[in-house]
Amino acid sequence: MVVVVDPALLQEEGGETLLLSVRNLGCSCAIEKQPIPRSVSWIRRIPCAQSDDVTCTSEPHVVMQMTVDDMVSLIHNYIQEERYGRCDCGPTLTSWVQEQQRRNPNKTLRVVVINLDKYLSGFVLRSQKSQSQKFQGLVAGKDGGRMKKRKNGEVKTLPEISRVEIEEATVHLQLHTGVSVCFFSTWKDFSDHIAMTTKAVAEVPFKHQKEKTGFSFCLESEWVGGQRVDKSGKGLLHVWKRQIQQLNRVSHDMASAILAAYPSPQLLKKVYNQCNSADDKILLLSDLLIRRGARITSTTRRVGPQLSTRLYLTMNSCDPEQVLKPT
Known about the structure:
This protein is an alpha/beta fold.
């Protein structure tokens, strides 16, 4: 993999961190001007089997680092257009990204903004200061809420936007373009994101090849060898678990929950026979708890009536043409 970095990124104070992160992966790094400004893209080098030549193909993924100034200005234009109907403010966040997509139709773009929290913190302080000055002016009978204008070229003042307006604009962007915006606090976080994306892009061909099978009905590799059962019966529990998992959309956690309550099909069959009605049999497993994760991150849900019904039909139906409806 070759990580292609726009030179504008290296002019920032975190440019060295980005380069170091890429080099630690063992990837090559090329510094070239990109069609999308301040962006990172990827090139895959594919060796030819017949010769020593190498074919280079450009990957579709592009990560662009947008400055806080540009992000705030584009979102401010979006707010002016959406809320006040003003169309003379310039490009909005959505229209700017759509223009980049039009110019680069084969690219999948993601936008990254670094240290936007600093601007938002300053916005809160400025709002509090403005309210305080306005209150003091009202008490003194003067207009204390207005600040003196700065001289032209002395300080660039960004428009005021809130966190809610940022969320509104980014959601509008994702709905209309499919492009998401990631916010990072430091250049180290951004560099780690580029490293993670590089790994993900590099593994795409391997994952695609792994998903391919010679036949549509061929099971996954871990299922091909079957389950070994010795003379003492060791391994039967895993055989029962695999039988449950053969049902459509039955996960490892679901099968484990049923296995904990009924460690063998014979025990489950016995309980079915003890039920008083057909409805009791169908809903026998629906209230079993499925646990996911561990400790603080653990969650629970129930097996539910649909899986309970399918397993009941599997265990009790005498019709060889019985259809188990997927959930």
